[in-house]
Structures are given as C-alpha cells and as structure tokens.
Amino acid sequence: MTIHKEGYTTIALSILFIFVINAIVDYKYHDITWLRWFIYIFSAALFIIVLQFFRNPSRSFSSGENLVICPADGKVVVIEETEEGEYFKDKRLQVSIFMSPVNVHINRNPISGVVKFFKYHPGKYLAAWNPKSSTENERTTTVVEHKNGTPVLFRQIAGALARRIVWYVKEGDQVVQTEQFGFIKFGSRVDVFLPVGTKVNVELNQVVKGGITTLATLS
C-alpha cells in the first residue's frame, strides 16, 4: 500500500501539528503524566487516521469493454430513474455511491472513452446523502463517450466534511477504465448516470470497491 499524492501536504501539516502540540505538553506539563499520555495517544490516532484516509492500496482491477466499473469505494445508496438536467436533459438511470471518511477516496474512470464534457460547480456542503447535494453541492460533472457511442456521466459531489474536490481530466481527453480521474477529501459521493434500461449489477446498500466492482453492463 502507498500514500496518494493528494495526502502529502495534509500529512506534512499533521506531523507539524503533532510535533508542536507534543512539544508544548512536554515542556509546560511534563509533570502531568495522564495529560502527556493522552496527547501521545491522540497524536498516534490522528496520524493513523490521516494515513489511512490517503491510502492507495494495491489492487487487481476489473475490466470489460461493455462493463461499467465502480468509480469509488463505498456503499450504493441510490438506484433509480431520474431526470438528469445538466447535460442529457432527459431521463437516466442513476446509481450513487456514498463514500464515508474511512473509505479510500480515489475516484476511477468507470469506462474507457473520450471526455465529451467536463464542468466544475462551486456550491454548498450539504450532507452527501441529501438528494439536493447532486444539484446544490460543490461538484464536478464528467461525461465520457464509450467507443460504441454510449455516453456515461459521472459526478463527484462534496459532502458535509469534504471541502476539496480534485480532478485530473478535461474535455477531449482519452481516458482508460479504472485509471484515476480524481480525488475527494473527507466524505463524499459519486453519482453515475446510465441509459435507461442498462443492466445494473449491484443492489442498494451493497458495499462496493472502486475499480473492482462491476456497477452495470452496457447494452
């Protein structure tokens, strides 16, 4: 397992914070044993939490020409037909994955193809499970066209804790299935919009793995 590049600055700041708070406690409160041990344990726990959040575990990825691979780790919280109003402006099949703070937060391309549309939206920080988060929160929208002509839209959505969305794609890019297209820090959600009638291979509340779980099969 390695540490994702998005974590380098946060980890460095965490180490600095831990060093400073421990130095203060050791200097000013060296005679209060319980306080020193509390800070030591807190510091160790904080460091482990930050490391695990930015972990980039080694994986054997799934692939398939007509498969839509899950773009993120988490739990399936939505499978429904809905009106997609930004790009398609028609009815689509929406599959949403909620990413808790303990999940790996790397986002991966669900299909290979050409990026036909990309847009970043500043916005609110509603809880990621709130239905309004799809249209009101900070988010990005990416549409990749499969070589068979089928477009798939996927959307990074910031949550109540997530305050930074990172993306690595732009319009015109040729992207490869399961390669990284972005990262969201501290709790979030990814929506995938598929053609109505697409065969979905997951169920509500199913725990899924980015780059591994097959989300759907394109016709």
UniProtKB/TrEMBL annotation:
Species annotation: Pedobacter roseus
Swiss-Prot/TrEMBL cofactor(s): pyruvate
Annotated site residues (Cleavage (non-hydrolytic)) in this chain: G187, S188
Localization: Cell membrane
Family: Belongs to the phosphatidylserine decarboxylase family. PSD-A subfamily.
Functional note: Catalyzes the formation of phosphatidylethanolamine (PtdEtn) from phosphatidylserine (PtdSer).
Broad class of enzyme this protein falls into: lyase
Cellular component GO terms, alphabetical: plasma membrane
Record's bilayer topology term: Peripheral membrane protein
Pathway the protein contributes to: Phospholipid metabolism; phosphatidylethanolamine biosynthesis; phosphatidylethanolamine from CDP-diacylglycerol: step 2/2
Keywords: Cell membrane, Decarboxylase, Lipid biosynthesis, Lipid metabolism, Lyase, Membrane, Phospholipid biosynthesis, Phospholipid metabolism, Pyruvate, Transmembrane, Transmembrane helix, Zymogen
InterPro entries: PS_Dcarbxylase, PSD-A
Pfam families: PS_Dcarbxylase
Entry GO MF terms: phosphatidylserine decarboxylase activity
Post-translational note: Is synthesized initially as an inactive proenzyme. Formation of the active enzyme involves a self-maturation process in which the active site pyruvoyl group is generated from an internal serine residue via an autocatalytic post-translational modification. Two non-identical subunits are generated from the proenzyme in this reaction, and the pyruvate is formed at the N-terminus of the alpha chain, which is derived from the carboxyl end of the proenzyme.
Full protein name: Phosphatidylserine decarboxylase proenzyme
Cofactor stoichiometry and binding remark: Binds 1 pyruvoyl group covalently per subunit.
Quaternary assembly: Heterodimer of a large membrane-associated beta subunit and a small pyruvoyl-containing alpha subunit.
Any GO BP annotation: phosphatidylethanolamine biosynthetic process
Entry EC no(s): 4.1.1.65
Regions crossing the membrane: 7-25, 37-54
